[in-house]
């Protein structure tokens, strides 16, 4: 089990997080509308500090006895819609050529999954991913085809590039350093954007509902200033997200290339299958990344987050400073500075 005492750093949470009261089941006996026995204690976890607000939204579904799949979709739509969030959804930073391209995937308790990669002009890629899962025989749609599918299914075509993102991109263009970089939380390797903003950070969310079923969602605008057409780990089942309802679920954030190379989230779930705790599984997956490319690993950030069928969770990252949010009937925490390699 994750050692909470070690990682809660209240001073860094900010008043808004601390002020949130624990969501409970008051006046809300769990309904059993999907006729499965109620066995689990619902819980939702997600990456980074924006996971707190996302978890709160997901909790509304979980607290009513709703399905984990509905919870994670509703939850990650919060950062997708947040105009101040430049690494997920509609206000995301663009690629090198000024296009905002979004990646997302979703997976349910039956092993069903859907994804969109490099989709443009659609503010909620996670809902398109779910529609790919539910309305097509396919798993992933990419680029123009994904946008076309979304429009055909009633999504609004919108300009996603905000003036703030455009300004940051133009600022970056001035330097003419056409090398997309990803910041890490480690001060030693920190790369700053105008205003000190991060140029990455995906929301990966994992939930277990009252029926003990697991689902996950992962959505991002990916690496800022990436090459047009670049797709990261986040929409790739097994890399950015994996759910096995018998064992557990995992998701990732950070430099997608290194996660893909190691099929990270699938690896974490497989390690849990072989008896690893969620945290040890995340740690071993990080170790594999470091072992394969030790020099690269020193300068990048990758973090994994995992949950098992008992509702135990854990996280591990290459660099210090990886935060994740946890919400259940008793608590709503942001855990940071978890154990990290460096
Ligand atoms: N994993 C994302 C990507 O590489 C970015 C991130 O989470 O920081 O696209």
Characterize the structure shown.
This protein is of the alpha+beta class and 342 residues long. It has a domain of 216 residues: Glutamine Phosphoribosylpyrophosphate, subunit 1, domain 1 (4-Layer Sandwich). It has 11 helices and 12 strands. An 8-stranded mixed beta sheet has the order 4-3-2-6-5-1-11-12. A hairpin with a 4-residue loop joins strand 9 and strand 10. The radius of gyration is 19 Å and the shape is globular. The chain starts with a helix and ends in a 7-residue tail after the last strand. Aspartic acid (ASP) binds next to strand 8.
Instruction: Kindly report the CATH topology of the domain at 32-85 and 176-337.
Output: Glutamine Phosphoribosylpyrophosphate, subunit 1, domain 1
Low confidence ranges: 1-37, 188-196
For this structure, what is the CATH class of the domain at 32-85 and 176-337?
A: Alpha Beta
Name the average pLDDT: 86
Report, as a whole number of angstroms, the end-to-end distance. Answer: 22 Å
Helix content: 25-40%
List the ligand species: aspartic acid
Major beta sheet, specifics?
A: 8 strands, mixed
CATH superfamily of the domain at 32-85 and 176-337: (Glycosyl)asparaginase
Neighbour order of strands in the largest sheet:
4-3-2-6-5-1-11-12
Looking at the structure, what is the overall shape? globular
Radius of gyration (Å):
19 Å
